[in-house]
Amino acid sequence: MPANTSRKEIPQYGLEDSRQLHRVPGNTSAFGYNNLAPAARIKGFELYSSEGVRAQMGPLKSDYYRISISVRGTTEIQLGLEDFTHSNGTISFTFPGQIFSKRGLSDDAFGYYLLFEPGFLEDIISPDRIPVEFPFFAFAGVPFMQLSPAELEMTVDFAARMNAELQRHQPGHDKAVRMYLYLMLLELKRSYLRQGFGVTERDDKPVYLVPRYRKLVSEHFLTKRKVADYAAILGVTPNHLNRAIREHTGHTASEAITDMLVREAKAALRYTDITIAGISDQLHFSDPAGFNRFFKEKTGLTPLAFRKNAVSG
């Protein structure tokens, strides 16, 4: 648990609080922040290689941005409602408050990841402009993409340059790291646009509707439970949205809302001490009995049984 965080809500971890969750204690890697002298650290920023990373993490929320870069091997990542497989050249992006989990790290997996707080780049860009300038950090953006070999090499080079600044700890190293991070983000935005991800908000093709619908559900599932609500936001009819989701995923649009409710319920049961009745209220169920029936139907376990298994596991 992060310091000073109530067990009455799903914890959202900061950089210091989350380190124990993603790093194996006692690892000897000398890359980035791992075993970096405290005097050389830069507030609001961390950089690691995958050497010494835990094979499984989450689901949890963090209050910083994350960039994950795969050089080889595979791992399974889940962001909100979306599941992705990282492989050679895959890069993913997480923004503050997003539910994140990782599993299935292959034995040959290697890569890098960067963590930074919204205010870390404020000398260059306002924190509220980050998801605007870099849409892969926005709800409506695409959080995963595949880099070309040249783009991967350039991205890894930026990580190496940031690491060199951390290790040398020369005057101005914090400014240099900020500049390298910003330049990395600019190059990644170019790749993002090159791959056609910068679509208009009213594009109604399934390939664009599906990720935008999933992100909207991740953001509004507590207050919007009808497919028609999301169709109105997306500027399409409910029938069109239902058809697009089913054709593209094999599932109904309403299943995405249900899936997000289940994931949020699991996180609350695993990470908080709030009562079952309290979780039912937070998830806007009419009564605890209805929440119990819903959860057991979708998972095969009662909420209480799931919580006991999570604690004992």
Automatic annotation (TrEMBL):
This protein's record includes keyword DNA-binding: yes
Keywords: DNA-binding, Transcription, Transcription regulation
Listed SUPFAM superfamilies: Homeodomain-like (SSF46689), Regulatory protein AraC (SSF51215)
Molecular function as annotated in GO: DNA-binding transcription factor activity; sequence-specific DNA binding
InterPro entries: Homeodomain-like_sf, HTH-like, HTH_AraC
Location of the HTH araC/xylS-type domain: 211-309
Domain of life: Bacteria
Record has Aminoacyl-tRNA synthetase as a keyword: no
PANTHER family given in the database record: ARAC-FAMILY TRANSCRIPTIONAL REGULATOR, TRANSCRIPTIONAL REGULATORY PROTEIN
Protein name per the record: Helix-turn-helix transcriptional regulator
Organism: Chitinophaga fulva
